[in-house]
Amino acid sequence: MRLEPAVLDLDWNEVERRARLFIKKYVEQTSSSGVVLGLSGGVDSSTSAALAALALGGDKVTGLLLPERETYSNIDVQHAKHISERFQIRTETIDITSALDAFYRSTPSFDGRDKVTKGNIKARMRMIYVYYYANKYGLLVCGNSDKSETMMGYFTKWGDVSADFAPLMDLYKTQVRKLARHLGLPEQIVKKPSSPGLWPGQSAEQELGVDYETLDLILCGLEHFMDSEEIASQIQADIELVQRVMFRWLTSEHKRRMPLTTKIQYRTPGMDFRLARVTA
Amino acid sequence: MKESVRIALAQISCNLGAKKQNMEKMAEYVWRARDQGAELIIFPELSLTGYTLRDRVYSVAETVPGNSTKIVARLAKEAELYVIFGMPELAERTQATIYNTAVFVGPSGYIGKYRKLYLPTHSVFEEKRYFRPGYHTGVFDTELGGIGLTICYDIFFPEVTRLSRIQGAQLIVCISASPTTRRAYFETLTMARSIENAAFLAYVNLVGIEDGLQFWGGSRLVGPSGELVTVAACDKEDLAVGEANYVDIKPIETFIPTLKDLRPDLFGKLKEAAEEL
User: Which of A263, B183, B251, B275 sees the fewest Cβ atoms within 10 Å?
Assistant: First the structure.
């Protein structure tokens, strides 16, 4: 396999068709009333929302806009509203600042200077709201995680990744952008730099230390069992970069699995109970 | 041929996927075993790489002989010791066909290998997903006597040790990665395989926790009447050294003459019945 950008090209009509069918059938199988998702105005949540609306009809999709004081972005809110209008999605806007403040104030060890732990509180607070709506209205939570951030462990454990299903999880970030363009999303959203929105000015590419075009080719190589030397040579990248990506991928598996337990009995959750997801 | 052999059971934990570090640990154990007068040292199943490799197996598998075999063989030469260890073996003429293999080296270099015949694919085990099974027993006629190699789940199938025994093995080696939940089976079966074959059996298990699986250790050298010659600790690394006196086999082989009383006429029936199961 040649690791060049074309390797990430897919038949976007087919991807759209399969994702829509998947969402529609899962909502039917679970007898859910629809789906709810966090709508940040970024490319991932906009694409998830669009797919869900195309699969179910906009009236079955609830988009939650969950801004907070520190990371508030007028452009993001405008983009989220554009998506909701374009795909006829119901939205609710809840400013989570006061809930976050309550957490900060009530937690003696809280240190606002520690931006990672503080940022993770925001991601988990958003999860609480999304699951509240799911619980209250019989909805499934549609996750917005893509394959790049999932493989890199670039998400908050039990935070933004929490969902009942995640239609984009097998698409790398650059592929999500292509799918978004295929679905007719505006270029401002398609090309918008990715950010988890945990602190002001946070940039995914800066934090990951690599642009998504390069990262996705490295991850695609790893997915196909290529070794780091071969990947580095093919894409003419530093071997250290490829090894760093591989290390991060391997050491973040704990974020992608059930909690670790130790095997004591006959069959064990997360180990050798192998059951299909069935619904009542 | 020697009348007895001093055997070191090197019950180690492994650093998953880190061959260099694991070989460094193996070297440390080799020299410790040498200091204790051992002539043969045995490491657990997949001890070069750790057991729960899953998809990483493709990036660490090597041909046998290959680089790691050469390194361990050099160590065996320097220490004048025979070494048995486990590793994922990449088939020579393919790029991703892998065996779960026991490698045997000695002071004169590479001796041979055994590819695991029975690959557990149930409970927490997924070996058939990754490994191709072997097709032959691994019996080697060495200065240390006839040695038959087996790996872990093979011990549940008495025909493997039986065939190895009648092909000339006086010492059956079973390298293993057995989780705690299987302890009682291995404690029983190591004795059973020794008794029914009037042979010594050296069982060497992995220890430590990998991906939630606790390997219990408990490595042991069992004599031909099922007696424990030496036993390693449970749940921690250990080096247990014991002696297999081959002269002990003769009185046992006469007292309970399982080899003399073998009934080959039943084997054909066994094959027919197994095919119809």
Answer: B275
